[in-house]
Specification:
The protein is mainly α. It is built from 17 helices and 9 strands.
Amino acid sequence: MKRALTFILSLASIYVFYGCDIDVEEKDSLLIETASGEFGGVDPTTSLEGAYEDLRAIMESQERILALSEHPSDEYMGPTRGTDWGDNGIWRTLHQHTWSANHNFIRDTWNQVNERVFKLGQILHPASAASTQQAAEAKFLRAWYMYWILDFWGQVPIREPDAGIDEDPIVLNATQAFNTILEDLDDAIADLPAAAPGVANTKSATKTAAQYLKAKLLLNKAAFLGGSEDPADMTTVISLVDSISAEGFALEDDYFEIFRSTDDNETIFWTPSSIGPRVWCGLHYNQPTRDNAGGWNGFTTTSDFYNLFEGDQNINVLGSNQEERRGYVPTDGSLQGIGLGFLIGQQYDSTGVALKDRAGNPLVFTLEMPGISGNNERTGVRIIKYHPNDGASRQHVILMRYADAYLMKVEAILRGGTSSDDPLTMINDLRALREAQPATTVDFDYLLDERGRELYLEMWRRNDLIRFEKFTAETWQFKEASESYRVKFPIPEQALATNPNLIQNEGY
């Protein structure tokens, strides 16, 4: 007898995972076999190593958490260019809030994050005899994935490692899932070591990372569960951020340097995912890196989001009076000719020669676009936050950053938390580091914009828009106001068909 878990991709998968008469390769890490047929535990050391590798893999893909977090927002979209990037509308429907329960990325993300929750539960089962720190790391990672499941779907299926093959996974509602995540994080905070800044200290789970995630969870409590913010929760958020600061984490004054694979004081948690998908998806085919590989010429930002930044909106070269975070397009061949931040206007090669597209037109990225379909190779402002100058396959993707925690503290103060710090002063301290003009006042609208300027493409924009009640009600380029139920994604139909404890989310 072989115990197994499924989060169902196909009818064949159903037979493999729910039937006992189909052979499955022994290398399948979800299958645990003992002479008695009971769950016999896993090796916690190798399984935890596998868990970090699983994290790297899912964060490397442009089609999983990154897609569901960014493409439905005003930050990012995948327009169709002739026959390129059509993909049967899979990118367009995310941006326009017209996805269905059959959307491939929604289904595949559901499968992968739930699979990872199950595998981490195997480490935590008493039969695996994990050490205190191993258990704490597993609880942190499980909380990380359950946070995304709660955020995306509002309910979390759970199968215990020793559950019978014919038992349907139980399903935690939003409140139960929230409390489970909180309990895991409190346990992790108690048993994990604190981290000081530095690449070597922030690659794995730490007390500091768990404090960050707990702050993020509490800040989103009302969005997840309904009701209004509890000032006591907001004060806890402030305290958690202060604890992170006490470990030496702080704002850096060289924005794009943070996203290199060198030590900095901002990175709280990172994974060795390749930066490739975050680079290639926007660069044009004729923008080669030092590896002589061009881009995939797909994704852009929206004009609405680009216009949040200071500077001449029609150009983004040095001297355009732009704030540091908007970056610039080099005209002298520096940085291999590839800009930082938002790429608009004429693009250049590594010798400073103006580039052309494949048809021989000047490669000029335009703010104007004819629509989300019908684009040529040049339309749309591109975004580069991780630069390929150090090598296109550089493996260093930030998952948690101090500037986010810092802005969470500002928000918690505005939402009723107790602190002696002044939100306007905090915002202007950050803006001074980013070479931006000081703000005169800080309200929720301004703070949402500032979070966008600071944290673009770090996977928090959808989450922020929902918490600030802008996600469905607001319009932006090529996206009309959408139905309120779109704050949750649909449960994939295959999952509903195999687990009667799941209930489809409203509207689907």
